[in-house]
Specification:
Layout: H1 3-31, H2 36-39, H3 44-69, H4 76-97, H5 103-122, H6 129-148
Length: 150
C-alpha cells in the first residue's frame, strides 16, 4: 500500500469518526445533558473543529503529494506543515471527545500549529482550492483552540 492509498483510507476513517462524533454530540446534547457536569468540560466544538481540520488537511496533503510527484517542490513546506497539523488535530479531537483534562493544554500547542499551517496554506490558496480549504479549517480550529487553551 503506498502513502496515497494509506492517506485516502485515513481520510475515510476520519470522515466516519467525524460523522460519529457529530451524531454523538447531538445525542449527548439532547439525551444526556444532565451528565455534562459529572463527565467534565464540554469540548464538542473543539472536537468538531479538529476533526474538520484533519479532513481538510488530508485532502490538502493528497493534493500536495500529487504536485510533488509531478516535480512541484514548492508544495514541500505545505505538505510538511499539513502533515504535522493532521497528527496534532487527531490527538486533540480524541482528547476533546473524551473531555480530557489535557485538552486545554493540547489546544495551546495545536493553536500554534494551526496558525503556522494556515500561513503556509495561504501562500497557495489562490492556485489550489485544497490549500484554501485547509487554511480556512486551520483558522477555525485556531479559534476553537484559543477559546479553551490555557
Amino acid at each position: 500500500m503506498d502513502r496515497r492509498e494509506m492517506l485516502k483510507g485515513s481520510a475515510a476513517i476520519s470522515l466516519a469518526a467525524f460523522t460519529t462524533l457529530a451524531s454523538a454530540a447531538d445525542m449527548d446534547m439532547h439525551e444526556h445533558h444532565h451528565h455534562e457536569h459529572a463527565m467534565g468540560a464540554d469540548y464538542s466544538a473543539l472536537a468538531l473543529a479538529a476533526a474538520h481540520c484533519v479532513t481538510s488537511g488530508e485532502a490538502c496533503i493528497d493534493h500536495c503529494l500529487d504536485l510533488l510527484s509531478q516535480g512541484d517542490k514548492e508544495m514541500a513546506a505545505c505538505a510538511k506543515s499539513v502533515e504535522q497539523v493532521i497528527a496534532a488535530c487527531t490527538m486533540l479531537r480524541q482528547l476533546a471527545t473524551w473531555k480530557s483534562a489535557y485538552a486545554p493544554r493540547m489546544a495551546t500547542v495545536v493553536m500554534d500549529m494551526c496558525k503556522a499551517c494556515e500561513e503556509e496554506c495561504r501562500k497557495h490558496e489562490k492556485k489550489h482550492k485544497e490549500c484554501k480549504d485547509c487554511a480556512e479549517s486551520c483558522a477555525a480550529c485556531f479559534k476553537e483552540c484559543k477559546a479553551v487553551a490555557i
